[in-house]
Design brief:
By secondary structure, this protein is of the alpha+beta class. Helices cover 43% and strands 14% of the residues. It folds into five domains: 168 residues, 4-Layer Sandwich (Deoxyribonuclease I, Chain A), CATH 3.60.10.10; 84 residues; 280 residues, no CATH class; 99 residues, no CATH class; 69 residues, no CATH class. The strands form eight sheets. A seven-stranded mixed beta sheet has the order 3-4-2-1-14-13-9, with no helix packed on it. Helix 1 packs across helix 2, helix 7 runs antiparallel to helix 8 and helix 11 crosses helix 14. The two termini are 63 Å apart. The C terminus is likely disordered. InterPro entries: Endo/exonu/phosph_ase_sf, RT_dom, RVT-Znf.
Amino acid sequence: MRQPVVVSNVRGLGRPSKRFLVKDSLLLHRALVCCIQESKLDSVTPAIWRSVGGNHFDDYCWSPSHGSSGGMIIGWNSSTLKGKLIHSGKFCLTVEFHNSLDDENWLCTSVYGPNDKHLKQSFWNEIRSSNGDKNQGVPYREDITQAQALMRDLNLVEPPSVGRHFTWTNGQANPTCVRLDRFLVNQDWLNCHPRINQSCLPRFGSDHASIKLTTGHHNFNQHQFRTKLRAWANTTFGSIKLRKLNTLHEIENLDAIKDTRCLSESELQRDSELKQTLHNTLNLEETHNQSILKETKDIGRAFTSFFRSQLGSNNTSRLHFDWNKIFLNKARIDLLALEAPFDQEEIKKATFDLGADKASGPDGFPMFFFQKFWSTVKDDLITLCQDFYFGSANLERINWANIVLVPKTNSPEFVSDFCPISLINSSLKITSKVLASRLGKVIESLIETHQSAFITGRCILDNIVAAEETISSLQKRRTMGNIIKVDFAKAFDMVNWDFLLDLLIARGFGERWIGWIERLLHKRGLRQGDPLSPLMFILVVDVLSSLFSNALDSGILYGVPLGSQGKICHLQYADDLIILIAGGAEDLRIIKLIFYLFEGIFSCLPAFRKCISHKINNGNSTLFWYDGWVGGRAPMDMWPEDFARTPDPGATVNALATSFIHKLKECDPSIEDILQNLNGNSKDLKIWNRSANGRFSVKSFYTFLIDGGSHCLSSQLIWKGFCPRKVKAFTWLAWDNKILTLENLAKRRYHKRQKLDESAHAVKRSLEFSDPGRTLVTCVVVGA
């Protein structure tokens, strides 16, 4: 047997969501045989088993539950194993297997013991009889003595354990940990598989940890015909399987710590976050498979799981800043005025400064109502603000919002095409506006001059003029320079709250003010639609601006000289950042390092490797797993299972290429020519794959930013040709696949999508063409 056996105590398979979780776990560990205990099912129909075993475990046998406990299932892959039911009892389920690959016969017995002490003797007798031992022996008083006698009589031994020791916990703050689950094998099995061992798998969905028996001779074959699917998954969502493996690995590490001591408060919080992350990842894998969702419940689940994983960050930052050094060049500002008592005029001004025509929140009262009937509601609003000031207001009843998903494109097709906007209660919005008005008076002294968003007196045109002057300065000096445009995805939603509160303390905000902020915006991320959120956000991104300024002042970054005005290296407008440098590759490395530092606390890192490929010569300077050297792809994205198991993720191509030669040849037939040159003297090269000559150019990068690199090589021929303008426009639309074919109409008209989809597929089948361009050029029907 060359693949593992997995045993899972699942604590019930009645719910479909639980069956999906078990199925995902079994397929993730790629076992050949699975033994499921405590199914709590009276019967296991083929439909139920397919929802658990999938196509991999296509054959099975089972024993029913007894009341609300018990029930066992053994599943296996019939293409490799032929199984025959030998015994099905109350406590044991035995199957005889024949392995067609190794021509090996062996027995597998799944055992589930009773809790009732009156059934213990029947339990031991059934185990003996099911394994061919008719010697009942003398009744023993202690279970441990019974177990020792059973192992001695049946010649059973326990394989060595790897990793964690305990398999069950009661889940309390001071947990009780016990080893309840284990494998037992006979001596003949050990002789055939001398490298056998058993290990615990990550615990989720049950208080029991699954256990896995391995023989040390795995043969993980690469699945075929999945290259395009994996490339799509990596560019759209990231590797979901890799994210799942990493999450399970962290859960396993925390389970190992539980075996030795109690978890700390931060570790308990991390354990809860990891389980929620795993749940969200499984939802992504279940729903985001590029299929069209039509049922209301499916659409709701897709949106919920996506935005729940996107909104905010509960993870503790893995980096900690020395605030005194970051803000060394910034003067301490007196912020005591922010905590002054609220007065009536201030509250009234905040109420009338808010837009009267804005959509209302959950309370149903638009701002126009409060402005129109100010004389009637002013006393209640003033009381609310005063209670908020002294901390006696019950915000739990009003501090919530309706989230409206606003499409970012004219024809949204994916969940990511929508932006969440928070419609908060108007009464709380007035309170937030009072705080925002106060902060707006001092924000200019807190934020660097490079930031031009959300600050009174500053305008985006200021940065445009500064950028033009910088470029002009470079041109006059005939100096080579670089201009980098950076935008952060989901910037408001990904703000880390621990970092924000530490930042407020470092900038000198008082304890009362920080308490207000924590009570108003203490959940996840920053709400788009709250008057206070933009100012909080520019405080956060000002840290990035300070990192660049400190690097420039200390001489680490060269920047761009502006004559008597000194130097400049960056400009900001909210989350849009422009970096200007006149230095060389060293400056670019420093910029990348600054982004990595900021990503450690802000969780938004630009993707640097999309536009770079690698030419392998001696393979000593290219990282095997991380660099995209196999047809522009990185092996960590192609083989996430192998990457998760590798002991040396930082190994070079020269060190690991021969170990993966068969997989490499399957992915890229030309890889053999690369491997023959690994022992040469030539160094590896990085190639800019957006230009024909492999060298970087601003034009190629601009083209990539504008249209993703999909440049039409015939554009000059189309627009410069001697034909009517309507023909040129139609040809251009045909190249860009924007012609109103039935398929494209189906994408736009949701209410008629099903009928149009059927018509489109019917036309495709009749014409035998799937590409619109090919249809226009070669189809005789269209040509006629």
